[in-house]
Design brief:
Helices cover 26% and strands 20% of the residues. With 249 residues, the protein is α+β, with helices and mostly antiparallel strands. It has one domain (12-242): Cathepsin B, Chain A (Alpha-Beta Complex), CATH 3.90.70. Strands 3, 4, 5, 6, 7, 8 and 9 form a 7-stranded antiparallel β-sheet that branches. It is globular.
């Protein structure tokens, strides 16, 4: 089994000798951007309510460990970002040395749990919010709340925004969002509401390339405030919300 370590500073990841399959390791150690949203301006000048993630996390994205997962790995990368938050903030002493699982570890865990057949290991099959809830509970004993949001502006503006607001105020952990027509996994780090509508703070795992500083990630839009109305109004969405309030810091 590959090894990985999150350093106390929250940035060094050592993926060990077998971090990616097929020898596709570009470097054994990657430096991932930490808390990439810090420094972003509020999307609304006169916001009525803004609720954000609390604590540090690492930005996982396509190929960040040397494994080229473009086109299928966005759900896995969002899970890794969520797991990094658990490692650095809310994980129990029992799991404090449990680093974010690698893609092969995530697949094997789903097979071990009986959610996927043996052929799933080593495949390029997508995973979504339901699998994310299983994986985070498996590795960190953190249950997740799953919320289904039907398509349409009213559901997104009212139900999703309120669920996210309550989540960030109570738990402060990153959320995974995915849907059917809009099947691109994304991390949600905050929600902001005002007279001109609501915005979600989105961290997008689809970036592929060399490691970037947080200012460059922000400039390129890989972490950014996006208006709720910019989401696909004909897609349903699911939210995976780690329930961490009872886990002491």
């Amino acid at each position: 089994m590959e090894t990985a370590v999150v350093a106390a500073g929250g940035e060094e990841i050592d993926w060990g000798e077998s971090a990616a399959e097929g020898g596709k390791i570009t470097e054994k150690v990657k430096t991932l951007a930490s808390s990439s949203h810090i420094g972003l301006s509020n999307p609304l000048r006169d916001a009525v309510n803004c609720s954000l993630i609390r604590g540090d996390y690492l930005y996982f994205h396509y190929g960040c460990d040397g494994q080229d997962d473009r086109g299928w790995g966005c759900g896995y990368r969002t899970i890794q970002t969520m797991a990094s938050w658990l490692c650095l903030n809310r994980v129990s002493p029992k799991h404090q040395n449990r680093p974010p699982p690698s893609l092969p570890e995530i697949q094997q865990a789903l097979v071990t749990m009986g959610d996927k057949p043996g052929s799933f290991s080593g495949s390029r099959e997508w995973i979504g919010t339901f699998e994310a809830s299983l994986v985070l509970d498996y590795f960190y004993d953190v249950p997740c709340k799953l919320v289904h949001i039907r398509g349409g502006g009213a559901e997104l503006e009212q139900v999703a925004v309120e669920e996210l607001r309550q989540h960030f105020e109570r738990h402060g952990s990153p959320v995974m969002m995915g849907g059917d027509r809009d099947n691109s996994s994304k991390g949600i780090l905050g929600v902001c509401t005002g007279d001109k509508g609501s915005y979600l703070l989105i961290i997008d795992p689809h970036y592929y390339g060399c490691q970037l500083e947080k200012t460059e990630l922000q400039r390129r839009g890989w972490v950014a405030w996006k208006k709720v109305t910019s989401l696909d109004q004909s897609s349903f969405y699911n939210l995976c919300m780690p329930q961490t309030a009872k886990n002491p810091v």
